[in-house]
Amino acid sequence: MSNDVVNRARRLAVPFALTATLAAGALLGGATTASAQGFGGPGRGGMMFGGGPGGMASPLQSNPMGLLQRTEVQTHLRLTVQQKQQIADLQGQTRTMMGERMRSLFQGQQQPGGGNPSREDRRQQFEQMRPQMEAAMNAFQGELNDKMKAILTPEQAARLRQLDLQRRGILSLADPKVAEEVKLSPANRAEVGKIVADWQQQTGEVTRTAFENARQSGQFPDFQSKLSPTKQKLDKIKKAAEAQVQALLSDEEKAAWASAQGEPFTFRADPVQQRPNFPGGGRPGAGRGRGVGA
Asked: Which residues pair with 281 in a beta bridge?
């Protein structure tokens, strides 16, 4: 990413800089996610736009490419050596192409208030760009899905879809395409939407508080360690939301949801990644050198 684009991201502070980084990373595997037209439809919220923080997977957004990077999934799907190489090649192409699209979005934005925008200016700028980034991600993910399907057999693609739903969990029923697949009633679709919206709001509040508290230490919040108070809060909020959705479903809807997921699969635990420093030490978005999105 060029220096001018990086500088633009830094001036928009942590939320915007994280969004720029995750926009490309979401399509390349790892713990981040992206909405998928062919594997679950366009999602709302999610890692970049209101869902799981700090690299946590969002139930509202599908991530088939991320699953295909996991060794246990490759083994389960019995991918051939050729398929693995094709997926690796596609991953490299994705990094370049998505990076170019994100750069074009950044370059098309004018910074309000000159070169030193206020916090409110940055917030407004982020909100203005959010629909464009969502549209870019959804469009690109649709193209990516077509390329992945060309690599996989129909049986592999179908099983990958099931694994994707298992990974996302029951809150993925807020995704309109998943709701349609399990024939969720209109009333329950509305209720699930409310539950997930409340979950997103609570998650956002915990996440914002964690970032504010992390300013003094100069380290990003710990969203991964089991002993992390922030992770414990987020897990508790999510489990409560999942229990609400589960209790809401009829017997027929529960059966359809189970069928959509297929045979249960056990994913390996995600490795705990080292938390990066805030650029400039204790203040997000400050300082020189390589920061988030560099």
From this structure: 278
- Per-residue pLDDT tens for 37-76? 333 333 333 333 334 544 456 788 888 988 999 999 999 9
Pick the residue with more confidence: 36 or 86?
A: 86
The pLDDT value given to residue 121: 73
Q: Encode pLDDT of 181-211 as tens digits.
A: 999 999 999 999 999 999 999 999 998 888 8
Number of domains in the chain: 1
Inside any domain, residue 280:
no
Examine residue 271 and state whether it is found in any structural domain, yes or no.
Answer: no
- Residue 108 included in any domain: yes
Residue-number span of the structural domain to which 131 is assigned = 3-261
Please check whether residue 208 lies inside any domain of the structure. yes
Q: Which of 10, 22, 5 is nearest to 137 (CA)?
A: 22
Kindly report the three-state secondary structure assignment for every residue of the chain.
CCHHHHHHHHHCHHHHHHHHHHHHHHHHCCCCCCCECCCCECCCCHHHHCCCCCCCCCCCCCCHHHHHCCHHHHHHHCCCHHHHHHHHHHHHHHHHHHHHHHHHHHHCCCCCCCCCCCHHHHHHHHHHHHHHHHHHHHHHHHHHHHHHHHHCCHHHHHHHHHHHHHHHCHHHHHCHHHHHHCCCCHHHHHHHHHHHHHHHHHHHHHHHHHHHHHCCCCECCCCCCCCCHHHHHHHHHHHHHHHHHHHHCCHHHHHHHHHHHCCCCCCCCCCCCCCCEECCECCCCCCCCCCCCC
